[in-house]
C-alpha cells in the first residue's frame, strides 16, 4: 500500500471513531559519508517512514505515531486512547483546504541522493582543509530527499518534497580546533571546499592565543555564536504557548521597544531554506510573520491548539520534529537590519562560537559560556588569536543596544543571521 | 557482492509513552511505536551502514539482501578498519520492582499530576511535568554467529516550576529516571523541591565571575566527570586525534586519590546488559590513582588504539553504534562534607546541573549549575544563580583538592553524534582550587 492509500484509509477509519482526524506522514531517503582519519570512513544510507495521527473528540486531542505501516490500527487505537485522558479544550476544527499564497523553496530537483555524490563532497571538504597545516578529525557530507504530507478529515491533503545537502568539517592543530558547516535545500549553495578551508583556517589561526584579562570589552559575535545564544533564548520567548503559560520574558511587552531599533526579527516561510513551506505541520497556510519590527515587539507565534485555547489565531507556526506531535516553532527566521560596512572598525573581541549555549537561562536570558576561536579584531580583520575565556551576559539586554550588524549574514539551521557587534560585555579570563 | 569481512544487524522494536502536564492541563498522554533496524557491513576498508524501518530479522533472504546493499556502501570507504576480538556475554536484565506496563495510562497521568501539583508552591506561576517511559526489545545477530536479545524498560519524569516577581523569572527543575521499574510513586517531594528552588532563586544574586575555590555537589560533580574526563577518554575521539587525552596513558592527570570509572554493568540508569556490538560489558577504570589507565572502546577503536576495555558501543534505536559512556563516576574519597566547606573557606558551592558541553580536542569544557551559595569563612552564605564553570581537561583534575565520601548517581541523557542515550553520572562532593566561574555580577 502506498502512503496516499494508507492515509485515506486511516482518515476514513478515524472519522468513524472521532469527530476529526489528522494524519502527518513522512518518508525519506538519505545518504551520508563520514570522515575518519582524514579520509572517507563510514558510508551510510537511511530509509525512514513515519506516520503520526491526531484525533479530536469533544475537544480532547489524542496523539500517536508509528514507524511501522503494519501497526497503523494499533496507532489509531493508541491515539483515541490518549485522547480519552487529555484535558478537553476549546477547539474550532482542523483547517479546511485553502488557496496557498506562497511558493516554498525547499526542494532541489537536481539533487540526487547517491553515496558517490556525498563521497565527492567529502573530497572537496578535504581539499579545502588541505590548504592549511591541520589534521582533519571529523566531518562529512549528507544528501537527503523526503516527502511530507498532512491530511485531515476537513479535506486538506497537502504534500511536498524537501531536499537537504549538508557538509561539516572539524580540524585540529595541536590543541587548537576549528569547526565549520553548511546546509541548504540546494546542492549548488554548498561550497564544500570553502567549508573545509574555513574550518582548517580557524584551527590553524587560533594556535598560540594570548591570555585575556577579565574585564569589559567590545565584542563581535559571529553569525554562528549569535545564532547559538539567540536560538536558545529568543525562540522559546516568541512561542505563544510560553507567553500564555507565563514562561516568556516577552509576555506583556507587545508594542514595546524591546530591542535596538536597528533590529528586526521575522519568519519568512517562502524564503529558500531548510524550513521553507507553504503550509505548517497542521496544514495551516503559512505567512510572513514579523515578530520584532525595528526593535518593537509585534506578535507571537501560535499553533491551532494554543490559538483555540486562548482565543488567538494560528499563525501557521506549527512544526514537528521526529515522531512527536506538533509544537510551535519557526520556519526560516531572519535576524535583520541595516548593515555597517564591517561590524565596526574599532578594536573588539571577535567570537566564532560558544561552548554550552544550551545552558543559557531561557526565562531570564542570562548566560555564561566558554568562547571558541576568539580573536582580536581590528579594522574589520581578525588579527590575533586569544587563548580562552568565558563570556557572561544577558541575551535580551544585549539585543536592546547593539553596536551594529555585519555584512556577513549566513544560514545557521533555521536562522539567517549576521554578525552582531556588542559593546561593553563581560569577559572572564583565566 | 563486494567483500564482506563482517556484518551485524541490530533491531529495536519498542514503545514510547509520554505524558505531558502543563499548569494542570493534560496536554498529551499516549503511546507511540517504532521498529528500527541498523545493518552494518565491514567491507575491505570501512563500514557500510543501512538504517531501515521494520526489518524481518528472521528472514534469511531479507538479511542477505540488506547485507548486499550495505556492502555496496562499504565499497566507497577508504579508511581501513579492523575489529579486535572481545569477550562475549549478556548480563541478566535488571529486575523490575514494578513493571510500568502493568500500570494503566490513567494512573500514570494521575500520579504525574500529583507531582506537578506539588511544584505549585506559593510564588510559583507555572508548572510543567513530563513522564517518559521506553520499552525496547532488542535483537542482534552477526556473521560470527553471535545472537542475543533482551528487553530494556525505562521510566521516569521531569518537573519544572517557574516563579516570577517584579519581572524576574526563575526556574527550578527536578528529574528522576530509573531502569528498574515504574517510577512515579511517592515523588511529590521532588515536585515541591522544584517549586521551592524556583521561588528562592528570585532573590538570589548573580555572582561575579573570576577564579575561585568551588565546591561541587554530587550531581554537578558527576556532570564535571562526564564532561571533563569521560568524553575525552572515548576511543573514537582518541583514534581520530580529537582528544587531548590521546597518547597520555600512564601519565598522571590528576591528584593521587582520584579514581574515575565508567561501568555499564552497574545497576543505574545507564545500565546495558551487553553492548551494541554484542560485546560483554565490564567496569572500566579510566583513571586509577590519578593516572590515566584506560580508554573506553568498541571493537574497532580497541584494535586501532589499544589501552582500554571494549564493551562501550551504544546506539540510539535506528542509529549506528558509537563509543559512549554509561554510568560514569568518581569513587569516594575520605573527606566529610563539613570538612570540604571548611577547607574551601571563601568560594562558591555549586548545586545541580543545567547541562554541559566539551570540546575534547581543545580540552576545554563548560557546565552550568542550577544554583549555588557563596561560601564565606567556611559557611554557606547568600544564594546565587546563573553560574557556570569552565576549565581545561589537562589541568583541572590536578585542582581537585578534596574528594568527599558521599557519592550519589544522577540519571540523564547524553548527546553525541546526533544520538541521545540514557546515562548516569555521579561523584562525591569535590573541592576544586582555581576554578573559572562565569557570572555577570559586579
UniProtKB/TrEMBL annotation, chain A:
Residues 22-81 form the Metalloprotease TldD/E N-terminal domain. It comes from the Archaea. Residues 142-207 form the Metalloprotease TldD/E central domain. Pfam families: PmbA_TldD_1st, PmbA_TldD_2nd, PmbA_TldD_3rd. Residues 214-429 form the Metalloprotease TldD/E C-terminal domain. SUPFAM superfamilies: Putative modulator of DNA gyrase, PmbA/TldD. InterPro entries: Metalloprtase-TldD/E_C (IPR045569), Metalloprtase-TldD/E_cen_dom (IPR045570), Metalloprtase-TldD/E_N (IPR002510), PmbA (IPR047657), TldD/PmbA_N (IPR035068), TldD/PmbA_sf (IPR036059). This is TldD/PmbA family protein. It comes from Methanoculleus methanifontis.
From TrEMBL, chain B:
Keywords: Hydrolase, Metalloprotease, Protease. It comes from the Archaea. Residues 211-439 form the Metalloprotease TldD/E C-terminal domain. This is TldD/PmbA family protein. Residues 7-74 form the Metalloprotease TldD/E N-terminal domain. Belongs to the peptidase U62 family. It comes from Methanoculleus methanifontis. Residues 98-202 form the Metalloprotease TldD/E central domain. Transmembrane segments: none annotated.
